[in-house]
UniProtKB/TrEMBL annotation:
PROSITE patterns: ABC_TM1 (PS50928). This is His/Glu/Gln/Arg/opine family amino acid ABC transporter permease subunit. It comes from the Bacteria. It comes from Rhodoferax ferrireducens. The chain crosses the membrane at residues 20-45, 57-80, 190-212. It is a multi-pass membrane protein. Belongs to the binding-protein-dependent transport system permease family. HisMQ subfamily. SUPFAM superfamilies: MetI-like.
């Protein structure tokens, strides 16, 4: 098959790929805000000085970080009906991916907070801020700048993890490619196009965080 013939054939697949791409984007849109918000809450608990609070949180985070993502998707997908829930596969997958990346992001945030010098806490308290005010107005902004690259990397991993939802029948970008492959018998050609879709999405995400990192350094 010549390059032009392959290219013309690939153009005919684009509508199906685009539908799957929209599902992938929807998964990212559901998982990412939930993981960021819950990760922030989890790191606040993790930083507690009370052993009865931070020790269980530590083990929960380590468990979630070390369980395979696809296994967690299967647990939520097959476990939801046992709890009386009739969630669609896309929502079960979104919950599982968000839960796991909550644990990853909590550790990223914790690393950033730990990297902020203790003198910043003292400075915040010296101007009359309460501990919560010191954390959110002094420490957290500095920590966020320090961990921007790590957050960007984790979001790229989250985007790639959405491809695992094909295993439970959610017609995302990956599964749409598999369906086209089964119908056309074009294997590597299909997945080259799929790889380009993922590459565009992950490269755009990495570039955005690189720009944010450069901008934040200039402002600081």
């Amino acid at each position: 098959m010549s390059i032009m013939t392959w290219f013309n054939t690939a153009l005919g697949w684009l509508p199906e790929f685009f539908d799957g791409f929209l599902v992938t984007l929807a998964l990212v849109a559901m998982c990412l805000p939930a993981a960021l918000a819950c990760g922030m809450v989890l790191v606040l608990i993790r930083l507690s000085k009370t052993a009865a609070v931070w020790v269980p949180t530590y083990f929960v985070i380590e468990f979630l970080r070390n369980v395979p993502t696809f296994l967690l998707i299967l647990v939520v997908y097959y476990g939801a009906p046992l709890l009386g829930s009739r969630l669609d596969g896309i929502y079960c997958a979104a919950i599982a991916i968000a839960i796991q990346h909550t644990a990853y992001l909590a550790e990223v945030f914790r690393g950033g907070v730990s990297a902020v010098p203790a003198t910043q806490w003292d400075a915040g308290r010296s101007i009359g801020l309460q501990p919560s005010g010191v954390f959110f107005r002094v420490v957290l902004p500095q920590a966020a700048i320090k961990v921007l690259p790590a957050i960007g990397n984790q979001i790229v991993v989250l985007i790639k993890d959405t491809s695992l939802v094909a295993g439970i029948g959610v017609v995302d970008l990956t599964l749409s490619g598999k369906l086209v492959m089964e119908r056309t018998a074009a294997s590597y050609e299909v997945f080259i196009v799929i790889a380009v879709f993922y590459l565009v999405l992950t490269t755009a995400t990495s570039s955005l965080f690189h720009w944010l990192e450069v901008r934040s350094r200039k402002r600081s």
